[in-house]
Specification:
Keywords: Transferase. Pfam families: Acetyltransf_3 (PF13302), Acetyltransf_4 (PF13420). It comes from Salegentibacter flavus. The N and C termini lie far apart (56 Å). The model has no long low-confidence stretch (mean pLDDT 91). It is built from nine helices and 15 strands. It has two domains: 171 residues, Gcn5-related N-acetyltransferase (GNAT) (Aminopeptidase), CATH 3.40.630.30; 147 residues, Aminopeptidase (3-Layer(aba) Sandwich), CATH 3.40.630. Helix 3 packs across helix 4 and helix 5 crosses helix 7. The protein is α+β, with helices and mostly antiparallel strands.
């Protein structure tokens, strides 16, 4: 196996899966998969063994010797068996960003498409963010595979841009969608006017409404009126959580007195199950204390069937002070 001079580590693993510098022995499998999946690739003609050999012995071989190559390609393995290939392409070492490329064994797509895409993205993040310290990675995809966007968003990538009729493909123009992820830690910031549509989508999400006290559908007009009133209300502190630059949830504190604030928070369903609810509540309170140092007590109501939220309040040492038939009240002095 060849090694990249641009990388300190050569193998990146997640359980039984790993990515390693692209292996010459995998070149004909890769050729086969690319030819089978030309419909979504920027590839205009079928590859042949001669063309593939030439590509590997010239273009790929040269990548291993460069300290700042234009692309870093990997074989994606289960154990030692190649299941796909891809990597970082169009690497911009000055602005520190790169496009993501990945295809898997065509036979895996029907049943395991999302699994392998998410798995590969997690592995590639180790290279992009931890190994070569890129600022941003992104996908540039023809609008042909809806399942791809589901997988990308589940991996924490945010939709950035849609380029209308960007590419001429099979005698027609098709759109391109770009999703991106930033090399940032979790960050809590003030909600902005531009977050209107994002918060509206959360407010009407079926999974969010399941544990809301008001389960009625909300119109955009109703939400806009409520949203802007909260931003203008001096007795409301409204924050948004971003995970690596992608909006993941919000928390709001409505001040009833200078020293008391009521909590309302939610997570984007794509980010549940990752410990972010605890992070949002704990660090949201910390951010509140920085902005409103006179607040001494916070409290919130939770439906009894909302077990994950109940566990979060309990974990953060909130006191349960009511025993209503349908909801619980938690409070904490800060």
């Amino acid at each position: 196996m060849s090694n990249y001079k641009s990388l300190k580590n050569q193998r990146f693993s997640l359980g039984n899966y790993s990515i390693v510098p692209i292996r010459k022995e995998d070149r004909y499998d890769i050729m086969k998969w690319r030819n089978e999946q030309m419909y979504h690739l920027r590839q205009s003609e079928l590859l042949t063994k001669k063309k593939q050999d030439n590509y590997f012995y010239t273009v790929v071989a040269d990548l291993f010797e460069q300290t700042q190559p234009s692309q870093i390609l990997f074989s994606y393995l289960e154990g030692e068996k190649c299941m796909g290939y891809g990597g970082l392409v169009h690497i911009n070492w000055i602005d520190r960003n790169a496009e993501i490329s990945f295809i898997m064994n065509s036979s895996l797509e029907k049943e395991f498409f999302e699994f392998h895409w998410i798995n590969f993205l997690k592995l590639l993040e180790k290279v992009a963010f931890n190994e070569i310290n890129l600022h941003k990675i992104y996908t540039y995809a023809f609008d042909l595979r809806p399942r791809l966007y589901n997988a990308i968003e589940q991996a924490g990538f945010g939709f950035e841009l849609e380029l209308k009729e960007q590419c001429f493909f099979q005698e027609k123009y098709i759109d391109v969608k770009i999703h991106s992820k930033f090399n940032k830690k979790n960050e809590i910031r003030h909600v902005k006017f531009t977050d209107l549509y994002l918060t509206y989508s959360w407010a009407n999400d079926q999974k969010v409404r399941e544990f809301s006290f008001n389960k009625d559908k909300i119109t955009l007009k109703e939400h806009a009126s409520w949203f802007f009133s909260k931003l203008e209300n001096t007795n409301s502190e409204y924050y948004l959580l971003e995970v690596q630059g992608v909006a993941a949830g919000s928390i709001r504190f409505d001040l009833e007195e200078e020293s008391i604030a009521k909590i309302n928070y939610l997570l984007d369903p794509k980010f549940t199950g990752k410990g972010l609810g605890t992070y949002l509540l704990e660090n949201g309170i910390q951010f509140l204390m920085e902005n409103r140092p006179l607040v001494q007590m916070v409290y919130g109501y939770v439906l009894k069937e909302n077990i994950p939220s109940i566990k979060i309040f309990q974990k953060l040492s909130f006191n349960e002070i009511s025993n209503d038939t349908s909801e619980l009240k938690f409070e904490k002095f800060i």
